[in-house]
């Protein structure tokens, strides 16, 4: 047996050693699924399977690169070079370029990013004279995206009265027309959006049996990582391609399915066994990534989900430290806590920045973290959010370059036709757009024929349009003969972009210039790499393809020593020694938008499971008592997910002084207190709890509601936590009315078992529970 196979445990070896046939590996986080895929590919190659015949689909291009590197180390880079590895989008974009003409597209089609799509939809909505507050372009875009991912084409839409009705019900009766317009305009521009890359691949494989056969024959072994997050469109592609040889190996974890909101279908994993004959199912149970505390805490969380496959995850690793829970007064303070903890940990334990990750539910949360890290001079890197390539000045340059490759690209053209200003006004562009729609041609083609179409433009304007066309054509000539760097450098100068920014002279303008320089450096780097590989010219089109499909994660060279900041969604599959999960608050995590149904809440819980299982050694859960949301200071309460972790795995910290205390609480229950007079309270018995050393409000926001503002002591009906008795009827904010049937534990650990009218028996930690005695 190859010695690299001995790097796997027995359970992991089984799916590697089964060479042929359909198989599925279902296993919890950190159990080596990705490692199994990697080694399986190396092993297949050692058995003589040609790299050309292996297709491996990963969640990010970065993951693909890392896998390829590991495989190169085992089988040699000249062999590994030929592997087809990457995301669904990047692999199928490649195939679509090869087969584009069959679908009526040019092989140099543009890939629209979300910005382009939303802008295009905005102008369609405007042209149709619809209310953009009803037809919000972003919402319309995500609706169209979900149609496409469910393979609902425009025709299918109009054939389906139910869909139309649903849109009409949500006050968008013209959705179908917008969809149609959008599809036509993309087609006319020789552009595909992200979802098209999958939709059109499906179209290609169903409409052209010979093409299907060609790729079935080519991809004799197919492997898919993170299978739980494939959507219907991706599922059908995999299904079609693997149909002939049925050598398909998918790995995934139903507990980590977190993209339902984007159409991922957990049933793909659940139904795999029905889709193929003789499926072998493998399970891995040993987690190699995390300490026992983390593994077991994560188990205790996911246990709360009803919809799940039964799985065991255990680890032979050390217990490790408990999960630290920290509260702060504000989100600013939360940021300072995270930054100072990183600072201290680094000092005390000689750690690098890149051993830390800060994970959050929404991108907006990064700001407070960034501020605090900057103040501590801790280098960090934000993944996601606005990527480098979406910055205005960068996108301006890229749009010129897009036009060089595909001048029909309407979004690119509209963006730069008058930037820098060259006297082509909005009215002219409107006229061009109307004509283009009328003739079912691109704006550029209209411009090329401007003398033959009567748009009532004066000669001056016509000449400006002709100059623009001539300029793009001159770039195209250069593109034929020079590499991408030469061309891009030329374009930035010739278009006046550089002069424009120089003229600006403000610090922002200078920063923009530096960004453009950075872009040029990036292009240089890229083409040098290309030239090294196969002596290629380093053509612009190759670079642009890379850019169009780059995610932020992909640009990570991995060797810069920075703290990683990203949303939990992006962190899937990754691992870090120290992980901070910040903003652990109700309405933020779980998100307020995802609490109306059990399945939404379960997806949030899976997201928390993903977050926690990224940590190898130490996890922190932090929350603030108040934070700015939508410009307003909002009171927050701790996330239910903290409460859901078996308490034994948690270690509560003080928020400020670093002294340790168990948050203590008095639940004061008043009768008919005027609620408007309520304020934050100190402990009711007048003596602060041990180690409680400042005037900070106590833990639970329920106190806020209950203490009279004038400071008077409550007169009647007051029951402190210690006085909560068995038999009391209580009201809980979420569970409603119930009766206390049992009490156990003392102080911070005190729990009440309560029988709720709806929801039945629940054990609640009084420290967290929001109870009113009635
Ligand atoms: P996730 O569900 O988060 O994607 P995964 O199941 O893909 O996790 P991997 O990322 O493959 O898990 O493995 C987790 C960690 O454990 C990695 O650092 C990997 O190198 C290590 N690992 C996996 N299997 C073994 C093994 N048999 N011996 C030692 N280390 C292992
Ligand atoms: Mg993995």
UniProtKB/TrEMBL annotation:
One of its GO terms (cellular component) is DNA helicase complex. InterPro entries: DExx_box_DNA_helicase_dom_sf, DNA_helicase_UvrD-like_C, DNA_helicase_UvrD/REP, P-loop_NTPase, UvrD-like_ATP-bd. The keyword GTP-binding does not apply. Residues 292-573 form the UvrD-like helicase C-terminal domain. It is an enzyme of class 5 (isomerase). One of its GO terms (biological process) is recombinational repair. It catalyses: ATP + H2O = ADP + phosphate + H(+); Couples ATP hydrolysis with the unwinding of duplex DNA by translocating in the 3'-5' direction. GO terms for molecular function: 3'-5' DNA helicase activity; ATP binding; ATP hydrolysis activity; DNA binding. It holds the Pfam family UvrD_C. Keywords: ATP-binding, DNA-binding, Helicase, Hydrolase, Isomerase, Nucleotide-binding. Residues 6-291 form the UvrD-like helicase ATP-binding domain. Coiled coil: none annotated. ATP binds at residues 27-34. Its EC number is 5.6.2.4. Belongs to the helicase family. UvrD subfamily. This is DNA 3'-5' helicase. It comes from Flavobacterium kingsejongi. The lineage of its organism: Bacteria, Pseudomonadati, Bacteroidota, Flavobacteriia, Flavobacteriales.
């Amino acid at each position: 047996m190859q010695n690299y196979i001995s790097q796997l445990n027995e359970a992991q070896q089984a799916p590697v050693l089964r060479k042929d046939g359909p198989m599925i590996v279902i296993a919890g986080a950190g159990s080596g699924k990705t490692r199994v895929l990697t080694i399986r590919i190396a092993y297949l190659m050692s058995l003589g399977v040609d790299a050309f015949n292996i297709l491996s689909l990963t969640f990010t291009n970065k993951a693909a690169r890392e896998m390829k590197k590991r495989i190169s180390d085992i089988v040699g880079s000249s062999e590994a070079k030929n592997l087809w590895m990457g995301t669904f989008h990047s692999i199928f974009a490649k195939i679509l370029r090869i087969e584009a003409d069959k679908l009526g597209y040019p092989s140099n089609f543009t890939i629209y990013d979300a910005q382009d799509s939303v802008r295009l939809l905005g102008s369609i909505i405007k042209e149709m004279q619809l209310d953009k507050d009803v037809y919000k372009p972003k919402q319309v875009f995500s609706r169209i995206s979900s149609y496409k991912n469910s393979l609902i084409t425009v025709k299918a839409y109009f054939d389906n009265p139910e869909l139309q009705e649903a849109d009409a019900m949500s006050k968008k009766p013209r959705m179908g027309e917008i969809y149609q317009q959008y599809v036509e305009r993309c087609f006319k521009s020789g552009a595909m959006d992200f979802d098209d890359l999958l939709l059109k691949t499906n179209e290609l494989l169903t409409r052209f049996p010979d093409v299907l056969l060609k790729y079935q024959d080519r991809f004799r072994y197919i492997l898919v990582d993170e299978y739980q997050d494939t959507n219907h469109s991706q599922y059908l592609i995999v299904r079609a391609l693997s149909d002939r040889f049925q050598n398909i190996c998918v790995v995934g974890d139903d507990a980590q399915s977190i993209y339902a909101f984007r159409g991922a279908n957990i049933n793909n994993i659940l139904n795999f066994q029905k889709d193929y004959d003789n499926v072998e199912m493998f399970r891995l149970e040993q987690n190699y990534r995390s300490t026992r505390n983390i593994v077991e805490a994560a188990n205790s969380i996911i246990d709360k989900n009803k919809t799940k496959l039964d799985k065991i995850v255990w680890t032979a690793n050390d217990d490790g430290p408990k999960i630290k829970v920290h509260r702060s007064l504000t989100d600013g303070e939360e940021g300072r806590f995270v930054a100072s903890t990183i600072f201290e940990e680094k000092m005390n334990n000689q750690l690098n920045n890149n051993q830390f990750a800060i994970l959050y539910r929404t991108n907006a949360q990064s700001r407070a973290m960034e501020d605090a890290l900057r103040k501590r001079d801790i280098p960090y890197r934000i993944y996601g959010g606005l990527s480098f390539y979406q910055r205005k000045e960068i996108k301006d340059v890229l749009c010129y370059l897009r036009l060089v490759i595909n001048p029909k690209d309407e979004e690119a053209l509209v963006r730069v036709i008058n930037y820098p200003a060259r006297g082509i006004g909005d009215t002219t562009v409107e006229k061009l757009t109307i004509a283009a729609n009328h003739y079912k041609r691109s704006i550029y083609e209209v411009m090329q024929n401007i003398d033959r179409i009567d748009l009532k433009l004066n000669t001056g304007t016509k000449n400006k349009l002709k100059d623009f066309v001539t300029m793009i054509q001159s770039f195209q000539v250069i593109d034929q003969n020079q590499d991408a760097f030469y061309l891009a450098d030329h374009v930035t100068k010739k278009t006046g972009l550089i002069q424009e920014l120089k003229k600006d002279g403000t610090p922002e303008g200078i920063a923009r210039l530096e960004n453009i320089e950075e872009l040029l450096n990036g292009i240089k780097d890229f083409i040098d790499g290309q030239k090294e590989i196969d002596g290629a010219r380093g053509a612009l089109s190759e670079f642009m393809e890379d850019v169009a499909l780059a995610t932020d994660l992909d640009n990570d060279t991995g060797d810069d020593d920075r703290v990683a900041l990203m949303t939990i969604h992006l962190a899937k599959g990754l691992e870090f020694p120290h992980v901070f999960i910040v903003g652990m608050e109700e309405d933020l995590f779980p998100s307020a938008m995802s609490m109306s149904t059990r399945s939404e809440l379960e997806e949030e819980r899976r997201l928390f499971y993903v977050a926690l299982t990224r940590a190898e050694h130490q996890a922190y859960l932090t929350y603030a008592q108040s934070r700015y949301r939508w410009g307003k200071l909002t009171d927050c309460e701790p996330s239910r997910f903290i409460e859901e972790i078996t308490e034994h795995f948690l270690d509560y910290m003080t928020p400020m002084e670093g002294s340790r205390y168990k948050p203590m609480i008095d639940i004061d229950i008043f009768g008919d207190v005027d609620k408007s007079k309520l304020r934050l309270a100190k402990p009711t018995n007048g003596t602060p709890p041990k180690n409680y050393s400042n005037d900070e409000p106590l833990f639970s926001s329920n106190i806020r509601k209950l203490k009279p503002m004038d400071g008077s002591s409550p007169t009647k009906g007051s029951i402190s936590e210690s006085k909560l008795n068995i038999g009391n009827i209580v009201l809980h904010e979420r569970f409603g009315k119930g009766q206390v049937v049992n009490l156990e534990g003392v102080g911070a650990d005190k729990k009440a078992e309560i029988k709720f009218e709806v929801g039945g028996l629940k054990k609640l930690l009084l420290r967290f529970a929001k109870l009113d005695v009635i």
